[in-house]
Amino acid sequence: MWRAYEKKLFNLIKIVFNSHSSKKLSESATLKIDFAEVASKLSAKDQAVADDLQLAQGIISPVDIAMRENPDLASREDALTYLLKIKEELKTLEV
After folding, report:
1. How is the chain split into domains, by residue range?
2. Which residues fall within 8 angstroms of residue 61, CB to CB, at 6 or more apart?
3. Which of the two ends of the chain, N or C, has the fewest CB atoms closer than 10 A to its terminal CB?
4. 3-class SS shares of the chain: helix, strand, coil, % to 5
5. 27-84 pLDDT per residue, tens
6. pTM to 2 decimal places
7. Residue 11 to residue 26: CA distance in whole angstroms
8. Predicted pLDDT at 8
9. Are 83 and 63 within 8 A, CB to CB?
10. Distance CA 32, CA 17 (A)
11. Within 13 Å of residue 84, how many CA atoms lie on the same side as its CB?
């Protein structure tokens, strides 16, 4: 919805900048904006319910949840390794 306005605004900014600056923006210069998705703030209980529903629907996997909850997991492979380690620990503890 806003992309057309962003493009028009950038073109106007480019014209003004090129008119008033010794430095110039290329006529082929473009602007790309990719806004992050706004995360909703759910209570822990509501988040667990939402996660269970999305897991059941196949929308997310436990790897997605692990990565969301632990930003130190830099990749899906790291998250999978982390989850498999927990699974083995639980098996050892017979939980």
Report:
1. 1-35, 44-93
2. 55
3. N
4. 60, 0, 40
5. 999 988 877 777 778 999 999 999 999 999 999 999 999 999 998 998 999 999 999 9
6. 0.57
7. 11
8. 93
9. yes
10. 18
11. 6
